[in-house]
Amino acid sequence: MAGVDYLADERNKAEFDVDSMKIVWAGSRHTFEVADRISKLVANDPAFRKDDRPMLPRKELFKNTLRKAAYAWKLITELRLSEEEASKLRFFVDEPAYTDLHWGMFVPALKGQCTDEQQSKWLPLAYKMQIIGCYAQTELGHGSNVQGLETTATFDPQTDEFVIHSPTLTSSKCYHTVEVLCTWWPGGLGKVSTHAVVYARLITDGKDHGVHGFIVQLRSMEDHKPLPGITVGDIGMKFGNGAYNTMDNGVLTLDHVRIPRDQMMMRVSQVTREGKYKQSDVPRQLVYGTMVYVRQKIVADASCALSKAVCIATRYSAVRRQFGSQNGGPETQSAHYRKSYTGLIQVIDYKTQQNRLFPLLASAYAFRFVGEWLKWLYTDVTQRLAVNDFSTLPEAHACTAGLKSLTTTATADGIEECRKLCGGHGYLCTSGLPELFAVYVPACTYEGDNIVLLLQVARFLMKTVSQIGSGKQPVGTIAYMGRVEHLLKSRCSVQRAEDWLNPSQVLEAFEARAARMSVSCAQNLSKFSNPEEGFAELSADLVEAAVAHCQLIVVSKFLDKLQQDIPGKGVKQLLQAVCGIYYLSLLHKHQGEFLATSYITPKQAALASDQLRALYSKVRPNAIALVDSFNYTDHFLGSILGCYDGNVYPKLYEAAKKDPLNDTVVPDGYHEYLKPLLKQQLHSAKL
Ligand SMILES: CCCCCCCCCC/C=C\CCCCCCCC(=O)SCCNC(=O)CCNC(=O)[C@H](O)C(C)(C)COP(=O)(O)OP(=O)(O)OC[C@H]1O[C@@H](n2cnc3c(N)ncnc32)[C@H](O)[C@@H]1OP(=O)(O)O
Ligand SMILES: Cc1cc2nc3c(=O)[nH]c(=O)nc-3n(C[C@H](O)[C@H](O)[C@H](O)COP(=O)(O)OP(=O)(O)OC[C@H]3O[C@@H](n4cnc5c(N)ncnc54)[C@H](O)[C@@H]3O)c2cc1C
């Protein structure tokens, strides 16, 4: 049956121009064309096969990743791909590798933390991959608490060097039962990186200046062996088969390792030849700049991971049929569903399925647009920093931290929901969903634990509330706090379900909820004589206020997007429906907060649910076209359930036949373990 498109009927139902939507999703025609070309290049090259990943033993898996990364680099250089094309190629290869950390963190750290002179030395080497780097910040005992790091970099004026040292238990106040407090977790560190950006406490003349970044060579450029004083290795298997085990997350101890003074990254602060510590005229927090950059990237990546899962679950939900009757005979479910040509009900037509799936589809679009906006914000703050305007740095930190937390939590939960939406078959590795979940879920932890990051947003919110009335007008994403008096008094004016389609009404509802939750936290905090104690005591409420603020940002950026000129037949109308599903499903999920803050009434909450159901019906015929708009190849999706042609069952059957366990009809181990058992039972049962 090759060539038959089992989803053709679904595709014919679309009420909008899919090609135009593809461009909206990609961000521009240019980005679409690059992504389309590179994704096909990868999909058509057998060297990038990835369906065997869950079955490979770790060593083989890792070597395979090294092979793919080297081959990708060969293509990048031979085809003279641009930076944009090269990064798309790595993205579509879709395999976590040391290159993610080299390009995603090491290079940005060099760019952001080094002086021009240092950059001119290190960047050309890194760009040509003549050195490979990683980002070594987290220690066994300290991840979230960066200020608590214990590795030291002590300046030795005699030799003009820093001595980098991981403290041992004996020299540490810590009472862990491990012998060494080493660096632990960095990706690419375990087996590959030649260099690392190591974060350590800078000590000059006995004085501790806090955490700074240093470039440390780890391995010999001749034979890849660790340099003297360096002990390095992989930290072991992680969650899931295949998944993130293609990455060599590493452990590192540094025993009085000496590096030249000019390998301290000196953009933010410097140590002179005499050992004098000098701080540039920039905020110390710029040392954390790489994290702001990567968090912004992670938000953009969330929409990719979630859209992948949603594409699989949506296509499969249209293919999968449950209940109804094959021959038009008595129905086992309500006649309401008797629409499909076979008489069997497509599971996508169940309202419960739509209620679980469509908000995730909407979230994928919402995260795409907020990711675009966050990229703009990051570019803007970077340009300002270049001219010593630091005014928007706290907002950029709060936005990147908060949105990283919000989008990764929703995406990880969403992928797991998509697995359940695919029923039993979702649990098969060939659905692609178990591995996608296992690869994605650490995003809730790395680059800042999601709760720790929300607490940073909460601090920013409390600071903003405390400044209300001081004459300092809040701007940007926090501008609504400038209208707090109105927002505390106002009441929702919705009278009919359709009123929930009014953008200004929706925006005010989300602003009022966020403002009221923040103000309530601030009022409760003011009852504590010690603010830090109050912050700790109220931290669960503060996290909820931070989530409300971040959801407001996502909703407002989606609504802003809809204000733009969006070409293509029906595209804008569909996006309006998708946006409506996004905010109304949030309103429904957090109804308690909207009601408790008294902005809306129970009747208005019920009208919101009515409108949400109406939007599900609007989106239903367009669901397949909406996921086709992601333009994912079958290779990238890596899922039989999500394959473009919907020909799921024969593919599942063929894949099962190819499982190594089916290489022989009688399994290995039969003669040792099954036969004797069965024989013994045969004797005792006298059969
Ligand atoms: C399939 C493969 C994966 C693919 C992923 C896709 C991603 C797309 C590509 C991305 C590229 C590369 C791939 C990356 C893969 C992921 C690798 C993960 C790498 C890591 O995990 S690296 C380690 C990251 N570690 C952390 O994030 C630690 C978290 N902790 C912190 O950030 C901070 O220490 C803190 C919790 C914020 C500190 O809190 P504390 O209150 O103690 O703060 P300080 O006293 O230090 O500072 C207070 C002051 O500073 C402000 N501030 C804090 N952070 C920042 C910042 N980053 N920028 C600006 N300002 C900051 C804070 O607000 C305070 O200000 P105030 O005094 O109140 O005015
Ligand atoms: C797959 C993966 C890749 C990684 N890659 C790198 C890398 O390349 N380089 C690198 O340097 N690091 C890396 N890391 C480390 C990562 O950045 C840290 O694990 C992360 O920052 C969380 O820190 P932690 O492990 O110390 O968690 P902890 O802080 O120990 O968190 C444990 C629990 O305590 C809670 N908690 C902690 N502090 C607070 C608080 N103040 N208030 C309330 N609750 C709190 C957290 O919410 C969490 O529930 C990686 C981690 C993973 C899982």
Explain what the structure shows.
It is a single chain. The chain is α+β, with helices and mostly antiparallel strands. It has 2 domains: 133-281, Beta Barrel (Butyryl-CoA Dehydrogenase, subunit A, domain 2), CATH 2.40.110; 291-628, Butyryl-CoA Dehydrogenase, subunit A, domain 3 (Up-down Bundle), CATH 1.20.140. Helix content is 51%, strand content 9%. It contains 23 helices and 13 strands. The protein has helices at residues 8-12, 18-26, 29-43, 58-78, 83-93, 98-113, 116-127, 289-319, 351-386, 393-421, 433-440, 450-466, 484-489, 503-525, 531-537, 539-563, 571-589, 591-596, 602-619, 623-628, 634-637, 648-657, 670-685, and strands at residues 133-136, 152-156, 161-165, 183-184, 195-204, 207-217, 230-234, 250-254, 257-260, 269-271, 277-279, 321-324, 344-346. Helix 3 crosses helix 5 (83-93), helix 8 (289-319) packs parallel to helix 10 (393-421) and helix 10 packs across helix 16 (539-563). Bound molecules: ligand LPWUO67N and flavin-adenine dinucleotide (FAD). Ligand LPWUO67N is lined by residues 96, 100, 104-105, 135, 137-138, 143-144, 146-147, 187, 285, 288, 291-292, 294, 297-298, 301, 393-394, 397, 439, 446-448, 452, 456, 459.
